[in-house]
Amino acid sequence: MSITRRAIGAGLAAAALAPLSRHAAAAQPPATAQAPAYFRYRVGDMQVTAINDGMAYRSLDGFVPNAPPGALQQAMADNFLPADRFPVTFTTLVVNTGGKLVLIDTGNGDLGAPTSGTWMTNFRAAGFDPANVDVLLFSHFHGDHINGARLKDGTARFPQAEIMVPAAEWDFWTSDDKRASAPDRLKGTFDNVRRVFGPVAANVTRYDWDKEVLPGITSIRADGHTPGHTCFALVSGTGKLMVMSDTTNNTQIFARNPDWSAVFDQDADTARATRRRMLDLAATERMQVSFYHAPFPATGHIVRAGNGYDLVPLMWTPAT
Amino acid sequence: MSITRRAIGAGLAAAALAPLSRHAAAAQPPATAQAPAYFRYRVGDMQVTAINDGMAYRSLDGFVPNAPPGALQQAMADNFLPADRFPVTFTTLVVNTGGKLVLIDTGNGDLGAPTSGTWMTNFRAAGFDPANVDVLLFSHFHGDHINGARLKDGTARFPQAEIMVPAAEWDFWTSDDKRASAPDRLKGTFDNVRRVFGPVAANVTRYDWDKEVLPGITSIRADGHTPGHTCFALVSGTGKLMVMSDTTNNTQIFARNPDWSAVFDQDADTARATRRRMLDLAATERMQVSFYHAPFPATGHIVRAGNGYDLVPLMWTPAT
After folding, report:
1. Is B172 within a domain?
2. Which residues of B are less than 8 Å from A20 in CB distance?
3. In angstroms, rounded to a whole number, what is the distance separating the alpha carbons of residues B155 and A152?
4. What is the DSSP string of A87-154?
5. Rounded CA separation B129/B127 (Å)
6. Residue A30, domain member (yes or no)
7. Taking CA atoms, what residue in B is nearest to A41?
8. Of A15, A215, A313, which is closest to B313 when you measure between CB atoms?
9. CATH number, residue B227
10. How far apart are CA A67 and CA A76, in angstroms?
11. Number of independent structural domains in chain B
12. Which of these, B13, B32, B43, B138, is most buried using a 10 Å CB contact count?
């Protein structure tokens, strides 16, 4: 065994050297927090800022019901992800179109996992003020996307903002008939939609698919994950960004295995077809993409790889 | 052509909608700076903080003399990197061993490109104070690694710190004979080494390879890039990190193409053998790695890919 191999082995004795220094790092206890989790990039004349809302962890058991036995565990290992839990990270977007400040989804608010809930801190660290938000543009109605709009105690966090929602999503989750016929596991989502949007239902703007819903922002049909799940194409000058929303969960696992269905996909077959269509489109067009659940900063480009796809992360640069 | 394809095409008219909002984002001009560029992770009981020092840009012409014609350009396109220039990013490490605060390399100081020089701002943003640094541990003597130790006007930035340098690097760059026989393009490096280290030459600690130079930190021979170029194995408990220094420049290009030699490699053949040896070791051992010139935060794991390797970036998490 070489010295190098031995050096990185388990047995390095850590006490060989005499103290060298007059300063003890122990006097400065290590901080543990990362830098504020925002990341800026440009799409033509638009400025996009990714705002992270922390993490939640799910058991691997049953997380991907249609993956072959052991395959999820292997994919986790291949990507140096935890062996015992699936990290789900949350990244919303702030889009400054030049004329409007638009939030695409709003994070968990105060109703997420204890390891989430950092959205407002990161939003303010990026220099934004909730009072200046013009539009809340929602991709779909799962709690981790909408709960940031209204706190547990009922407070609206962006009371001045226009609220724009996918018409198909609205029609489904606000229907008493759909709630009555839905499986029990979905009833909480129906109720939460009423909690968040009930007080402002009369003022909500419902948008259709394949429309320019705001200047330079077009809604793209991407149902399956939920009945009204929507992606957004941002186009400005030569800049293009496809906001992939929940087309995949963590791209490291689900872009490479696009036929795998996470438990969150309400209509797994439709979601699978949508996933392949959107990933293929992104690869063909070489468009920049963002994903709500990709590792922060959750943006890059899609390339084909094997029977699936990979996300090539955008290279970090100091300024946009 | 589908509506989706049309929507992301060049022709979206951006004026279709009436103004929706009472707030003009134009009142809040977009900030352009990213969050402070530090990133923390743990290696067993050690805490590592990556500190970025910005970027420099090189012409693609002649940057990889032994790449087939057009191949570098293709690799840049495959990784969605610029078509016209090579971005070189700089990331140093702060290692809190529990007993000592160690810097591994020091960045460009005030002698780098205008798009670099942000090291001290990021270091302070991460909560560190230059007065508390115990050790400067250098991998090699290129200016982007050592100039942060002494400003242009001669000021030492870490006057309290022990300075540790590779013996082979010291012997080469401080030799009058080596300078006399070196090609002209290297003479500036000889002179800069004297500028940085001359005033403290009597107090510099020269270390050998394959030694535990500080508790838990072992020097690994990795010459070729320069005569004394060194990697470092950090081991604490079950945590292991291989600090790859300049074993590759940008991993997106040079891990996948390990036989390509950037112009900075002084002995290209030796550097190529070192690169393959170190990348193979990292892949086999599944060790976490860091690279000085990988995209920030410049850490992850190495996997085999085609005739070369890929860096799988470490997943961002809110806290270490």
Report:
1. yes
2. 100, 134-135, 162, 205, 214
3. 55
4. EEEEEEEEEE-SS-EEEE----TTSS-TTB--HHHHHHHTT--GGG--EEE-S---HHHHGGGB-TTS
5. 7
6. no
7. B32
8. A313
9. 3.60.15.10
10. 12
11. 1
12. B138
Contact yes or no for A100 and B297 at CB 8 A: no
A74, with CB counted inside 10 A (0-12, 13-18, 19+), is: exposed
Give me the residues paired with residue A56 across strands: A88
Burial of A200 (0-12, 13-18, 19+ CB in 10 A): middle
| Inter-chain CB proximity B4 and A233 less than 8 Å | yes
> In this complex, which of A7, A21, A47 lies closest to B134 when CB atoms are compared?
A21
Strands B162-166 and B135-137, how do they pair?
Answer: parallel
Please, are residues A214 and A102 in contact by the beta-carbon 8 Å criterion? yes
Give Cα separations from B49 to A168, B75, B92, B95 (angstroms): 46, 30, 8, 7
| Subunit contact B98:A26, Cβ cutoff 8 A | yes
Residue A320 lies in a domain: no
Rg (CA), chain B: 22
Total count of residues recorded for chain A: 320
Residue A166 contacts residue A229 (beta carbons within 8 Å): yes
Provide, rounded to the nearest whole percent, the portion of chain B with pLDDT above 90. 89
A45, closest residue in chain B (CA to CA): B30
List the alpha helices (DSSP H) in B101-234.
119-125, 143-146, 167-173, 176-181, 184-197
A19 vs B129: CB contact, 8 Å cut-off?
no
pLDDT digits (tens, 9 = 90+) for B106-143: 999 999 999 999 999 999 999 999 999 999 999 999 99
Q: Respond yes or no on whether ipTM tops 0.90.
A: yes
Nearest C-alpha neighbor of B262 from the set B291, B284, B236: B291
The Cα A31–Cα B129 span in angstroms is 13
Q: Could you tell me the residue range of the domain that residue A96 belongs to?
A: 35-313
Q: What is the pLDDT of residues B180-232, one digit of tens each?
A: 999 999 999 999 999 999 999 999 999 999 999 999 999 999 999 999 999 99
Highest mean pLDDT pick, A7-11, A215-219, B13-17: A215-219
Q: Does A160 touch chain B (CB under 8 A)?
A: yes
pLDDT digits (tens, 9 = 90+) for A99-120: 999 999 999 999 999 999 999 9
Handedness of CA B54, B60, B65, B69 (dihedral sign): positive
How large a percentage of chain A has pLDDT more than 70? 91
User: How many alpha carbons lie under 13 Å from residue A110 in its C-beta half-sphere?
Assistant: 8
Cβ B302 vs Cβ B255: under 8 Å: yes
